[in-house]
User: Fold these one by one.
Assistant:
Number 1:
Amino acid sequence: MPVGIVTDSTAYMPESVVTELGIEVVQLQVISNGIAFNEVDGITVDQVALALRANKPVTTSRPNPELFIAAYQRLISNGADAIVSAHLSSELSGTYESALLASRSVSCPIAVIDSRGIAMMLGFAVQAGAHLAKSGGDFAEVGDLVKRKCLGSSILFYVDSLEFLERGGRINAVQARMGTALNMKPLLHMLNGKVEQRELVRTREKALNRMIDLVCAAARIKSEIAVHHVAAASAAHDLAQQLQNRTGLKDISVSPVGAVVGTHVGPGALAIVVSPQV
């Protein structure tokens, strides 16, 4: 029987892909004004952006283990005899720990993978694993592919302000104040599962051009690239077009991140994910 695939809502994969490949997606929550909303069908990233601009309190919350148990049981009921469950970095959320705890309550082999990443760093890996599972890949093969894709992927992102990352505890106050005091625009990346500052650039235009240079240096002929944004669709499509022109890659997807990541990076954020085809 095919290997079942589970991930969480921060993978930000197209719904059509999720449905086609039979991937179970467990939702994180966003808490706005004291009310909890599911990330996918409860609150939009645009609503989060409006709340953040109005200085309203917005936080995020991991799924409880019962949601993972239910997802695992659905896959088992549909014939899966093993499951690969891959999730956003454990340095950013307790989601991985919830999935791990849930896996111990299910009578089925489950590999719970800490992607050490987020967004399509995770999404590309999950899609690759689901395709392999659908074509007959076994439990070990699928888990190994997902791990290798996660390990080989990178994300680079630009934020208009470090304020929101500081609010959510993803960077420290010293980092945030330094960037603000120097009136510099930050480029950030994931390093060892954490959000770290990579560079400070003098203007927004220079920051975006630098992003493109760095991504083009990292991309290869068989790389996959995705562009994400928070309430910045026009800028994201422009980035994608420039990347297509520079790399020759035609299938560069553009999509908003969801409400969880939007809460931490704030309006105007842009991100580029590069994932090797392994």
Number 2:
Amino acid sequence: MKKNTLTKIKILYEDKDFLVIDKPSGISVHPDGRTKEKTITDWFIKKYPRSKNVGEPMGEIFRPGIVHRLDKGTSGVLVLVKNQKAHQFLKNQFQNKEVRKVYNAIVSGFVKNERGIINKPIGRSPSDFRRRLAGRGARGELREAVTEYRVLKHFNVLSNKFTFLEVRPKTGRTHQIRVHMKFLNHPVACDSLYDLKGFCPKQIVRLALHAKSIEFKNLKGETIKVESPLPKEFLRIIK
């Protein structure tokens, strides 16, 4: 992550309760307790100091303004909340599966079916505490996970095949899209955790996963839909 990344965060939508930003790839949403890297929550507290106590602890980590998260390598739309009422309101929408999210992903290989639904519970990997696993071998509590996808384009880079997808997760499990695409044997391109031996095009120096849009309701019950433009490195490779 470049030192000036936090100063370049773009605000896509804002009102008195909610803030939607365009999260850059390469920055964590909140601290993990292991590193001292600056995170989205650091930026949020600095910009909105009155909201520094909004949220709830996750174990020993307090995450001000955070209701949902994106993986460090994932870019795109991220909603933050400015007050406790908005926090609970958005949290309830996520728990009731009322929030609609759309992602774009570049995955390895040609995905055969034009559309598909992956309905496979996700648990922990028995070999790596950082990884999650769908299907045989998953350990611990297996949590429901459903992901819909649609093929947008097939393309080649040198002799390597790739597919550009629109992905709609119906649940919000850790690494869900990455784990489900790995389960299909079409891992997300340039994924250093789930595709160690895969070919990573030189045009992409990051995880090829982008949160394109999110749709939720504000405190008045009005629908808010916010979109993030496709990253330039994606546009270059799929053209």
